[in-house]
Design a protein that fits this description.
- 2 copies of one chain form a homodimer.
- The first copy, chain A, contains 8 helices and 14 strands.
- Chain A is α/β, with parallel strands linked by helices.
- Chain A has one domain: Rossmann fold.
- Chain A has a 7-stranded mixed sheet, sandwiched between helices. In chain A, strands 3, 4, 10, 11 and 12 form a 5-stranded antiparallel sheet that branches.
- In chain A, a hairpin with a 3-residue loop joins strand 1 and strand 2.
- In chain A, helix 1 packs parallel to helix 4.
- Chains A, B: It comes from Winogradskya consettensis.
- Chains A, B: Pfam families: Methyltransf_25 (PF13649).
- Chains A, B: This is Methyltransferase domain-containing protein.
């Protein structure tokens, strides 16, 4: 098999998940008749392949995990929802009359977020958006998007971009996953090989696939709170609090040094 | 990326789906804590990749599609459930005190079927099992397993094996899917390219993947009723009835020539 062509995998996935849920737009159908569930395919560089239902990206608040609700209650001032996808959380903040910008690198996902009513959207990586003059009080990284810190190389650059976009006293509210509770030898072995290569154990090298397309390979970080603290050293951000109620998921609140 | 190693993909999938549903055996867990849904990954030779929830393989009768119930009501005498998987339908026939043998090529799936209480099981392809002296009145091909006819080369061989295993008056009850209702250009184009190569439009070339393993590539047939009739010509079987109530799915009953 040749390598699959690169495309806006996340955008296509979210568009179909939204169509299945809302009935708006063409849905994937078995035999041209029966709606199929939309599944995100995640390949890891050790050959592990997993599927995850994409319906989560368009879930309504009453279906969310409890920590998502706790995260939104901590938002204040102008909010930048980073990796906002189809607008799941940004739309809810907008409903609550908060000032919120949804940012994503996927044009397809932003198109769906706008179709669903999200008014303020940006298609860009944070580094590029950091050149704007807009400033924020809260940066939201939900849906495991603490993973966007990637690892030791990327984290300082990413965190500097957020600092450039920050008002005094700004906070990052990020949801992460501690991957180290597993005893599955496939994961434990992967973590070990990562560490041998100077990476974090849970520094996953992934690509996403949907239908005919793939993303390029990228790093996505599942880290412990201790590893997060290591990453924050020497950056303008410091850890303010951790909510571990939904372990292995956690919410980390980081605050700009004053 | 290298090619994934070949393994008992279906067996591993079914074992995990059964563990998630029953709590028996180790389950796949996110962060070592939260159960993950088990997803079957299906790759097609044009690069299309799809996921399907594997929970269907261990679904209880009240969750089945209506045509599965109609198929079981048509069973009589000794039944061979071909591609029985985790025993979904064979276990229900056994509960109804029918004589049923569950046959599958997956050792892992048969292990789960036996763990769930299925008494008479065979790990073999039908060709190999056709050397036995056991004879059957009904051959069941559910869960799209009409697809095991593969195409023009395989169908006569497969149907001859069933004839060798058949008592006089035996019937095949098979569930198929008519793939030609789609307008999706990805599928329509695939069907066209298949026909240009002398294959049936819906003669899918697939492999399954789960976690670290893949199957070898195999053909699996989604065909119209007209194509099925073409395949039956010159074989010991003739089409007796078609139930299209759940279109695009259908139940075909085939009877041995007397």
């Amino acid at each position: 098999m040749e390598q699959p062509p690169i495309g806006d995998v996340f955008g296509e996935l979210v568009r179909d998940a939204y169509a299945v849920r809302s009935g708006i737009g063409p849905r994937p159908l078995a035999g041209g008749r029966v709606p199929r569930p939309v599944i995100e395919i995640i390949e890891r560089d050790d050959g592990l392949i997993n599927g995850a239902p994409a319906d989560q990206y368009v879930a309504e608040p009453d279906e969310w995990q409890p920590h998502d609700h706790r995260a939104l209650r901590m938002c204040r001032g102008a909010v930048l929802d980073i990796g906002c996808g189809a607008g799941r959380t940004a739309l809810e903040l907008q409903r609550r009359s908060m000032a919120v910008t949804g940012l994503d690198i996927s044009p397809g996902a932003i198109e769906i977020a706008r179709k669903r009513g999200l008014r303020d959207t940006v298609i860009a990586p944070v580094d590029q958006y950091a050149r704007t003059t807009t400033r924020y009080d809260t940066f939201l990284l939900l849906g495991n998007n603490l993973g966007l810190l990637e690892g030791r190389d990327r984290a300082p650059v990413f965190l500097a971009a957020l600092a450039a976009l920050a008002r005094p006293g700004a906070r990052i509210i990020a949801q992460g996953t501690d991957p180290y509770g597993t005893t599955d030898p496939v994961h434990v072995g992967y973590h070990e090989r990562n560490r041998e290569r100077g990476r974090f154990g849970g520094q996953l090298r992934l690509r996403l696939r949907y239908r005919l397309h793939a993303t390029t390979w990228f790093d996505y970080l599942f880290c412990s709170v201790e590893e997060l603290e290591e990453l924050l050293q020497g950056t303008p951000w410091r850890l303010k609090s951790i909510d571990r109620q939904d372990h292995p998921y956690y919410l980390a609140v980081m605050e700009l040094h004053t």
